[in-house]
Design a protein that fits this description.
The protein is of the alpha+beta class and 194 residues long. Helix content is 39%, strand content 16%. α2 crosses α3 and α4 runs antiparallel to α5.
Length: 194
């Protein structure tokens, strides 16, 4: 399946935005999302590797001789790469971990069924899904926690090298082993913290 690469799923969706004030309200809400300590509330969904929300207003007119095309509605574009095998995995995690945020975003979209019925919400996301034809993932079988832990180790090792560069070799092995033991004792970083 084109949407799957290893243990990851690539979701691309387009949701028509309701007419009226919904466009302005959604735009304002999306801009406010990065006020959280860890960035976007989507970083609280532990299976999300990457997520993007954007509003598509209209097509860009290229000028003559191009023909001017118009969209019938504005659209919310939601793209997400996550650990899982189906849209159900992501939507279930989003409702459980950031349910109010899901409602705050998608209430502005046409035919949003609410988040009370997980099955109806999953069907809604599937209905608005666009097939991903080419999904490249550099670590297709590594989960979010594994990648975050690897990034933490890389950061700590780089800091160790910078700190110990030019110092006498005496004691280097002990300092390295102490750093290595501390890495083993550290907890995995929270999504959105790195």
């Amino acid at each position: 399946m084109a949407n799957i690469n290893g243990g990851k799923y690539a979701l691309t969706t387009l949701f028509p935005i309701k007419p009226g004030e919904h466009y302005a309200e959604l735009k304002e809400f999306l801009r406010s999302m990065d006020a959280d300590a860890y960035g976007s509330p989507l970083s609280k969904v532990g299976r999300v590797h990457m997520a993007r929300l954007a509003i598509i207003d209209d097509f860009i007119y290229q000028g003559v001789p191009a023909k001017r095309d118009r969209l019938k509605s504005r659209y919310l574009l939601f793209m997400c790469d996550f650990d899982g095998e189906s849209v159900e995995d992501l939507v279930g995690a989003m409702v459980t971990q950031i349910g109010p945020t899901v409602h705050d975003i998608w209430q502005h979209c046409v035919a949003y069924p609410g988040s009370a019925s997980r099955d109806r919400l999953i069907a809604y996301f599937e209905q608005c899904q666009i097939k991903t034809d080419l999904f490249l993932a550099d670590r297709p079988n590594d989960e979010v926690a594994t990648i975050l832990r690897a990034l933490m180790c890389k950061r700590e090792f780089a800091s160790f090298v910078a700190t110990n560069q030019g110092l006498p070799r005496a004691g280097l092995q002990q300092r390295f082993l102490a750093m290595w033991q501390q890495l083993g004792a550290n907890s995995t970083p929270h999504p959105g913290s790195m």
